[in-house]
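Researcher: Here's the sequence for the chain we discussed earlier.
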Amino acid sequence: MPQHASAVKRVRQSAARRLRNREHRSRMRTMVKRLLQTEDASVAKDLYPETQAYLDRLVTKGIIHRNKSAHYKSQISLHLNKVAR
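Model: Thanks. This is the structure I predict for it:
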């Protein structure tokens, strides 16, 4: 247990940040999974811009690394091209 006031505050801030980041990561994974599981081209086309924008937003906020975002965007665009055929 931290003894100094600043250390106590850092623990409190870290816990709040961890919960916030967990929510964002969970939503991101759900969006990507939903897009990858759909076989309907029109649904995939609707979900694609929303998912891509959310991934970019998480990179900007520093929640995920830009390479992870690029990996997910590559996966979903490949899936979109496959479904569109």
